[in-house]
Amino acid sequence: MSKTWFPVIDRKKCFGCMKCLKVCRQENLKTEFLRTRPKIISPEACEDGCTNCGRLCPAGAITYPGD
């Protein structure tokens, strides 16, 4: 089974508010040491159709190209 749905963070739009980290049920969004913006650890682990991180992003930096 292949997964085509996943969130993508636009690094240019993201300003590091980290609201997406607070809502991720799979804890798939993380920050690394001294990193000011989130990173998606494994897109295939995201719950298909969740979109919670994108709805809360005030910068509109999260999109779902697999939709």
In short:
The protein has 2 helices and 4 strands; from the N terminus they run E-H-E-E-H-E.
Can you give a write-up of this model?
Helices cover 15% and strands 12% of the residues. It is largely without helices or strands. The protein has a single domain, classed as Alpha-Beta Plaits (2-Layer Sandwich). The strands form 2 sheets. Strands 1-4 form a two-stranded antiparallel sheet. It is globular. The chain starts with 7 loop residues before the first strand and ends with a strand. 18% of the residues are buried.
> How widely separated are the two ends?
16 Å
**Rough outline:** globular
CATH architecture: 2-Layer Sandwich
Kindly name the structural category: little secondary structure
What CATH first level would be assigned? Alpha Beta
How many helical elements? Answer: 2
> What composes the largest sheet?
2 strands, antiparallel
Q: Give the SSE string.
A: EHEEHE
Rg, Cα atoms, Å:
11 Å
Low-confidence stretches: none
Strand order of the largest sheet: 1-4
Structural domain tally: 1
Strand percentage lies at 5-15%
The chain-level mean pLDDT equals: 80
The quaternary structure here is: single chain
| Percent helix | 10-25%
Q: Do you know the CATH topology?
A: Alpha-Beta Plaits
Number of strands: 4
